[in-house]
Amino acid sequence: MPDCPAIRVVPAGAVSRPELLRLDVRAAQRPYVGIIADLLADAEQCPGCEPMAILLDGAPIGFYRIETRPGSIAGRDFAEPTLGLRAFFIDHRWQRRGLGAGALAALLADLARRHPAARQLALTVNIRNTAGVALYRRAGFADAGALYHDGPAGPQHLMLRALP
Ligand SMILES: CC(C)(COP(=O)(O)OP(=O)(O)OC[C@H]1O[C@@H](n2cnc3c(N)ncnc32)[C@H](O)[C@@H]1OP(=O)(O)O)[C@@H](O)C(=O)NCCC(=O)NCCS
Asked: What is the pLDDT of residues 105-121, one digit of tens each?
């Protein structure tokens, strides 16, 4: 996975709110992640959720949240200590430049520092989201088998990646 030193991940609370609120995906991608205002509001209500900003040279270009209670990811618990990844996105003005892959590398390094006991990272991705599925496969995520059918935009793959 590419290591991009210009990319950092930080808690969303450390970033100016108006700058975060400018982040968006393409209209056709919104069913996969929603809009940033709702994501931030939801994260504030959600115990065990860590909203994170992706920075390029110090400026926000993306967002995600880490779930420390991963049962909510696919409606089931996991045998190993597991974290969940939700709502990962790169702002539409910055997509297709390798930044999504670089952000995942920074995210994984951050988890190794802040959650060293976690053994795997789980996420769901819509089966129609070819960009998302391709990105996650290239970053070492593997399909966990059965489809998860409870997503708002249709069936999703449950994908897992071992954490170092
Ligand atoms: C998925 C997403 C994060 C990818 O970010 P990105 O910065 O554009 O990705 P990168 O440039 O790092 O691309 C890495 C790999 O992802 C895949 N990929 C990215 N965009 C793609 C696209 N439009 N079509 C097909 N594959 C794509 C490719 O495998 C690509 O590698 P390549 O460029 O060597 O072919 C971005 O498209 C996005 O934010 N989408 C909307 C939100 C979303 O769907 N998030 C996932 C929710 S689970």
From this structure: 999 999 999 999 999 99
Please choose, from the candidates 139, 148, 34, the residue with its C-alpha nearest in 3D space to the C-alpha of residue 87. 34
From the CA of 90, how far away is ligand 1's center (Å)? 8
Could you give all domains of the chain from N- to C-terminal order, each with its CATH number? 7-162 (3.40.630.30)
Atom of ligand 1 nearest to the CA of 125: 48
Gyration radius (Cα) of the chain, Å: 15
pLDDT in tens, 13-37: 999 999 999 999 999 999 999 999 9
Q: How far is CA 9 from CA 58, 66, 134, 146, in A?
A: 10, 12, 22, 31
Taking CA atoms, 118 is separated from 78, 121, 146, in Å, by 11, 8, 23
